[in-house]
Amino acid sequence: MPRGPRRGFIARIAAGFYRRLRYRVTPSGYLFAAALAIVGAGAIASANNLLFLILAAMLATLLISGFASRLSLAGLELELNLPEHLAARQPVTARIRLRNMKWFPSFAIQLAGQPQFPNILQREIVFPIVPGRSTLLAHAPAVFPKRGVHRENLFVLSTRFPFGFVERRASVSIKSEVIVYPALEPTPIGEELMAELRGDVEREQRGQSADFYRLRPYEVYESARHLDWRSSAHTGELQVREFAREDRSTLYIFFDLQADAGEAFERAIECCAWLVWSLSTQPVHIRFQTQTRDLGFPDQVDAFQILHELTLAEAARFAVVPEPEADDPDVLFSFAPERFEAAGWRPSRVLNYGRPE
Questions:
Q1: 357 lies in a domain?
Q2: Are residues 27 and 146 in the same domain?
Q3: Which of 136, 150, 201, 354 could form a disulfide with 178 if both were Cys (CB 3.0 to 4.6 A apart)?
Q4: What pLDDT, on a 0 to 100 scale, did the predictor assign at position 253?
Q5: Residue span of the structural domain in which 237 resides
Q6: Could you tell me if residue 63 is inside a domain?
Q7: Same structural domain for residues 257 and 289?
Q8: How many domains are there within the chain?
């Protein structure tokens, strides 16, 4: 998908943020704790001053380790930049800026997604050193698992500096509003619909304008006015000259919102989104309608606005069937198409997403 201006969202780890700090003892930490216990027990049992000095040095090392790891995470600022247009399950490149607001450096900083929440980052990012008063830039693949409005992204900054005994963690919440379109992935049903609609458009493009469209074999009962005698003599078969129409065809798509929320509804949303996105690259007009919106492409809105409506679409238990119009839909997405037939609708094609595939 095309990429527009990037948006930046910032989260900071400030002094009052320490309540979010968490830690996890590493295997090296457990070994060090065991050694500390053995040295402490030996010092008490033997009353050896040398063992007490070693015990004091080990305790000081442990305290310094915790203090240094805490300082390493302090004063960091995280900024996440994403493309303007995003689709579910489509990998994009996220630009991540990590700023160190302190005058001294931070070491061995790792960035990952929050395990309890959907993780958009596909891999962990490591910053070996972040110099004081500086900014580091990293690129990482990101994927949003589903459509919708994502208002909060949760990440974890962690470090094992300096000795690796404890992994100190800080949760970072970037509050933002990211619109993620439905997945734009072809399905067998969607590809079949697209092939049929392309055929309709191609047939309607045969016109009588001055722009040459193509040569094709002659069909029975056609007028001989547009026979191309030179090509007919060359091929040995009658050939007809076709001319392109100057106006675009209009394809009418209606999406019925009366349904139960679930996988079937999401599949229909994704199929409709892919169909609209694919048709937007063709020389056609699109009329997209639901019980709440009626949009026209490209006269009123662009394709992204239709995708935006599909992103926010929610299944409704009671959605009224509109009165039929002079033009019947080319495609009807419905959980219960018989409701439309009873109301007098005569769609050309029906995708019943309430029926199991």
A1: no
A2: yes
A3: 150
A4: 93
A5: 206-244
A6: yes
A7: yes
A8: 3
